[in-house]
Amino acid sequence: MSAADSAPQGAQFGVAGMGVMGAALALNIADHGFRVEIWDRHPERIDEMRQQHRHPRISGTGSLEEFVARLERPRRILLMVTAGAPVDQMLERLFPLLSEGDVVLDAGNSWFQDTRRREELCRSKGLNFIGVGVSGGEEGARHGPSIMPGGSVKSYALVRPVLEAIAARTDEGLCVTHVGPDGAGHFVKMVHNGIEYADMQLLAETYDVLHRGLGLSNDAIADLFSQWNQGIAESFLLETSIKVLRKKDPETGKPLLDLVLDKAGQKGTGKWTVQVALDLGVPVPSIASALDARNLSSMKDERVAASRKLKGPTEALSAEEKAQLAAWTHDALYAARVVTYAQGMRLIQVASQEYKWDVSLASMARIWRGGCIIRAKLLTPLREAFTQQPELPNLLVSDAFAPVLERMAPQWRKLVATATKVGIPIPVFSSSLAYLDSYRSPELPQNLTQAQRDAFGAHTYQRRDKPDAGFVHSDWNG
Ligand code: 6PG
């Protein structure tokens, strides 16, 4: 399928759901030469979209029957509706209208197990179903998102020209690829969001250390971040933080950030990442700490009350700490970010083995290099590391990152020690450092854990000196 070779009458692509993201994707697809049919359950949204944009290749209808009838076969229909029950409801409405071989793409942030179920259901009806992770917000959807499609190879081939046309591209290639079968695309998008939570929390902690710890103004922090963004720490989220730090409230002239209530919201993908990681037994403490940080932040009233009872340390920063803290924080930010990406990649790797998805981590790094929220310079060495060693068990031991972590860890430790000394919470900086220290420890104190389990519950343990003896029990009371 190409933009030019279809019959003039039918639309080549359908987009159902004209919210912000659906509308932006429809415009992006049409801009790339495809005829697009749009539908929404609120017909006024169709009118709005057509009046506002008057795109020559976009037509629309409020009737789902007409929408489906106006599409070329095999039909390609992208759903951009709220994740959860609305996707199932849309499928139920579409089933009687579709024909064998048609393709339905779900581009919302759907739970990957729902995607696996829906893919199987559609397959049983002779339909193709693709669960597509789309990242980049409205701007990305409009001008080039990162796209993570999961489904059969055959289904992907039917939509590939459109997805490749609209995706972001970087020097390293297109920011779309076939991620793997059934739920693979939505799983990868979920982990993307988990990493996003950790990265955002690291930036929040960095801001806190510089603001509360060093007393820097928002503009001074923005200046520092701008310098950092010229180097290895360069990332979209850092760039976004600079914009946010500089913004003045048009009403009051004050820094707008200072007027934002410190209660973080969430839509659930970070929580899912942690839940799945627990199920698969993959430690993701950086992501879990970021999630907890959001949950703790939302307990505003309790925190305000507690602040009157629970006093923090009164120690001040030393002259060396004052002089060095910003530089330490830069290195800590980079190193901790490497650790959070390492945890996310490991989670994808384990899920890929569990569900037989065969996800290429190097390709994931490539498609995250542009368009998405976690795009960052470090994805380039990360991609190279997984290209050289696709089965690398953990990014931390890669030749690209192990020396960097060794070089930056001393500064990271100083940041953690200093912030802890003055009572500034840095949950992701510290849990990421603990992960690194645990992962690099040949010995951990879980011999005590095992002994306790055996002592109070006869849960048995393995002996170091008798590896062939299997699990044994001792009488710890004697
Ligand atoms: C993206 C974003 C997008 C959305 C998050 C926000 O990749 O474009 O991740 O999916 O901004 O879902 O999630 P929270 O509301 O949970 O922060």
Any descriptors?
478 residues; alpha/beta; Rossmann fold; N-(1-d-carboxylethyl)-l-norvaline Dehydrogenase, domain 2; seven-stranded mixed beta sheet; 19 helices; 9% strand; disordered N terminus; binds 6-phosphogluconic acid
Give a structural overview.
- This protein is of the alpha/beta class and 478 residues long.
- The chain has two domains: 3-182, 3-Layer(aba) Sandwich (Rossmann fold), CATH 3.40.50; 191-439, N-(1-d-carboxylethyl)-l-norvaline Dehydrogenase, domain 2, CATH 1.10.1040.10.
- Helices cover 54% and strands 9% of the residues.
- It is built from 19 helices and eleven strands.
- It has helices spanning 20-31, 43-53, 64-69, 85-94, 112-124, 137-143, 153-166, 184-213, 218-228, 236-246, 269-280, 285-297, 300-309, 319-355, 361-367, 379-388, 402-422, 427-439, 446-457; strands at 13-16, 36-39, 58-61, 76-79, 103-106, 128-135, 146-150, 169-170, 173-174, 461-462, 471-472.
- The strands form three sheets. Strands 3-2-1-4-5-6-7 form a seven-stranded mixed β-sheet, sandwiched between helices. Strands 8-9 form a two-stranded antiparallel ribbon. Strands 10-11 form a two-stranded antiparallel ribbon.
- Helix 14 packs across helix 18 (427-439).
- It is globular.
- The relative contact order is 0.09.
The helix/strand order is: EHEHEHEHEHEHEHEEHHHHHHHHHHHHEE
Share of β-strand residues: 5-15%
What is the gyration radius calculated from CA atoms? 25 Å
- Average per-residue pLDDT, rounded, comes to 96
Q: So what's the overall shape?
A: globular
Ends distance = 77 Å
Domain module count: 2
Bound ions, cofactors and other small molecules, one mention each: 6-phosphogluconic acid
Q: What count of helical segments does DSSP give?
A: 19
What structural class do helix, strand and pairing data support?
A: alpha/beta
Q: In the CATH hierarchy, what is the architecture of the largest domain at level 2?
A: Orthogonal Bundle
